[in-house]
Task: structure prediction
Amino acid sequence: MSNYRRDRINDSMAKELTEILRSVKDPRVSSAFVSVTGVDCTPDLKYAKVFYSSIGGKDDEKGVQKGLDSAAGYVRKQLAIRLDLRNTPELRFVRDRSMEHGAHIMGILKKVENELREIDEKEKNDD
Result:
C-alpha cells in the first residue's frame, strides 16, 4: 500500500476518532478532555496506534488510559461503521507526551535565557 493512501487513512481515522471519543460513556474518558493527536496504522491495516493527549478529568492519566483501553471495542465498532475499510484495525491507545516535553524544553530555554541575561547585566555593571 502506498504511503499516501495510508496517510489519508490515518488522517480520516484521527478525525473520526475525535468525534467517537466524545460519545464514550465511560466516566474516566468523558470527564477528561481527550484529544487525538495522531494515528499510525501498520501497512496491512491490522493494528493502529492512536496517540492522544488529555486534560483534566476525574482520574489521573492512568485512569484515562484504562478507560480508553476498556472502550476500545466500542470505538473500533463505531470506526468500522463510519469508515469504509475492508478491515478495521485493532486500536492501541498511546499517550502523546510531546506537549509536556515541549513545555519542559521551553522552561529550560527560559531558564538559560534568564541566566545569560543576568551574566550580561553583571558584566555591564562591572565595567
In short: The mean pLDDT is 88. The two ends are 67 Å apart (CA to CA). The CA atoms of residues 16 and 79 lie 7 Å apart.
